[in-house]
Amino acid sequence: MTHTARRIGRSLALVLPVVLVLSGTLAVTMVPWADNTPSQILTASAEDVSVPAKPRPAQDLLRDKLVSEIQQGEQPGDVLTHLQQEVDRRPSLAEHCVGIARALGRAAVDAYGPTKAQSFARPVCDTGYASGVASMG
């Protein structure tokens, strides 16, 4: 390569990125939806403010509560008993029991390690707790 071609290549290597960035920035500011007037910004942010939040499903609330109990130092065996009591009290939770027990198994591994966590296993929701422990161990 000649000296002149090398110098042109270096100049392009320095100038081209700057040109591309500036042209991209100008293109974005020139689009019709880039109306940044204060009234437009206020209108956009005020839309749908009164839409109420959707309530969380009961199984999610129960799972979070029971995982929190383990994280706060309650024995996983006792928490599994609480899960069984809730399922007995509200049979609609039975279809979510395995998933909740699996989350409890993972929380127990985080709190106690896999070997100790497995020692808390109870026959609650089939093997959900054990599979949660196994997935973390």
Helix percent reads 55-70%
Q: In sequence order, what are the helices and strands, one letter per element? A: HHHHHHH
Strand content: under 5%
Detail the poorly predicted runs.
40-44
Number of strands: 0
Shape: elongated
Estimated radius of gyration: 29 Å
Sketch the major β-sheet: none
Global structural class: mainly alpha
Q: Please state the average pLDDT score.
A: 78
Please report the distance between the alpha carbons of the first and last residues: 60 Å
List the helices and strands and how they pair.
Elements lengths: L2 H27 L8 H9 L11 H14 L4 H14 L7 H16 L1 H5 L9 H9 L1
Helix pairs in contact: 3-4, 3-5, 4-5, 5-7
Task: Please provide a brief summary of the model.
By secondary structure, the protein is mainly alpha-helical. Helix content is 69%, strand content 0%.
Description:
By secondary structure, the protein is mainly alpha-helical. Helix content is 69%, strand content 0%. It has helices at 3-29, 38-46, 58-71, 76-89, 97-112, 114-118, 128-136. Helix 3 runs antiparallel to helix 4 and helix 5 crosses helix 7. It starts with a helix and ends with a helix.
